[in-house]
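Quick log. Single chain, no ligands specified.
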Amino acid sequence: MYFALIVLTMLVFPAISSFLQLLLSSTGASLFGSLSSWFVFWALGVRLLLAGLRQVFQPAFTAEHIFEISDTKSHVIVQELGFANLSFGVVGIVSLWIHAWAAPAALLGCLFYGLAGFNHILKKKNQTEWIAMISDLYASVLMLSIFVLRP
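-> predicted structure:
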């Protein structure tokens, strides 16, 4: 389920959303502008909103499956991470309607995903953490591109 969510929010849904926008739009939106808006919406907004909800309401998943911590005392820290992810997710989602937020949201996503990805590099990884590391670094590079290249 975790891998499917990553693939859907970071590849499939941004591509489909952009394709539909370009197909149905009469404004002549650019491919890059459309893809970047939808990538920020899905990869930063929806992915982190869903991760945040899971971390707040089911902290054991992140603690045990990603960080391999079985101590329930860690749940309070995971929930705090969930609050940050919820906040980042809302910024990513709102950037679809408040276009001025897209570049700052992309910068936020670049930093968050980049730092998280590099943190995963330094650790011995299980399969879930490998997925998290690769997807975090991928998202960071794309968010950096969006921040630098978006008009």
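The chain is about 80% helix and 0% strand.
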